[in-house]
């Protein structure tokens, strides 16, 4: 049986994943008189490039049923490097494409922040809500006894159920502290995305492709600790501490270099 607290914790994550990104976007658009379509363009950037397009190479590199996938998944360095680079390449390319096309006529510097809020905000919403809904669904199935039946049926069909077998134990370990830590992580990830949008925006407006490649590299570096955590190299708290410090330092530097003292009109 799954403790009833899991429903409260996941409900909090769903509420956070909706209220914070939407509230931030509304506050920014209203106070800065920005266009909501710029925020929506940022959201679309993440979904198209990170969810749809990035899934194609991920299938080849991380498929456990192929020799290549087994090699990558069995090597911490390859797993971390490829995962981080794919995220950096696809998401920053998405920013570059959108700033050159959909947002090409929006040259005020606030455009970069609007896009970043949409990009990072929708990522937070999508990841938190989808994961929490999945956990809640499985929690109900576990508590009413249908989860074991489903796992048995999938196993009989030859499906790999190793991740499902360990799911009840993983869910039982979820605490309020873990949920709060997840919220903190999403806040600073959003901060990073705003900073990256500022860098790529300046790459386009100043015709400096080097800034685009810098954004790819900096994004990839941000994703390395998370990949190392998934590989079991870093623990959760060390990983989160690294990500928070990295996001803050990165944003402060980017804001001062490309936004505050060097406005693009």
TrEMBL record:
Pfam short name (any one): YhfC
InterPro entries noted in UniProt: YhfC (IPR011397)
Annotated keywords: Membrane, Transmembrane, Transmembrane helix
Keyword Transmembrane annotated: yes
Transferase among keywords: no
Spans traversing the lipid bilayer: 6-29, 36-56, 76-99, 120-141, 187-204, 211-229, 241-259
Protein name: Uncharacterized membrane protein YhfC
Organism name: Butyrivibrio fibrisolvens DSM 3071
């Amino acid at each position: 049986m799954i403790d009833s607290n899991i429903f409260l914790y996941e409900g909090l994550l769903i509420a956070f994943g909706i209220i914070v990104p939407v509230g931030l976007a509304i506050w920014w658009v209203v106070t800065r008189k920005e266009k909501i379509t710029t925020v929506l363009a940022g959201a679309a950037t993440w979904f198209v490039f990170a969810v749809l397009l990035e899934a194609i190479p991920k299938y080849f590199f991380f498929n456990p049923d192929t020799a290549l996938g087994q090699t990558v998944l069995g090597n911490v360095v390859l797993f971390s490097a490829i995962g981080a680079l794919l995220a950096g390449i696809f998401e920053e390319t998405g920013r570059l494409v959108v700033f050159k096309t959909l947002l090409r006529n929006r040259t005020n510097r606030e455009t970069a922040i609007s896009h970043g809020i949409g990009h990072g905000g929708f990522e937070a919403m999508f990841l938190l809500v989808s994961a929490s809904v999945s956990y809640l669904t499985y929690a109900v199935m576990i508590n009413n006894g249908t989860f074991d039946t489903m796992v048995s049926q999938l196993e009989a069909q030859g499906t790999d159920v190793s991740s499902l077998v360990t799911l009840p134990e993983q869910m039982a370990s979820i605490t309020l502290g873990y949920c709060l830590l997840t919220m903190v992580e999403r806040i600073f990830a959003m901060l990073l995305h705003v900073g990256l949008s500022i860098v790529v925006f300046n790459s386009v407006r100043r015709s400096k492709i080097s800034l685009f490649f810098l954004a790819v590299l900096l994004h990839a570096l941000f994703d390395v600790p998370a990949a190392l955590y998934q590989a079991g190299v870093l623990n959760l708290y060390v990983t989160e501490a690294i990500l928070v410090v990295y996001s803050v330092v990165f944003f402060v530097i980017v804001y001062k270099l490309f936004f505050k003292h060097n406005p693009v009109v």
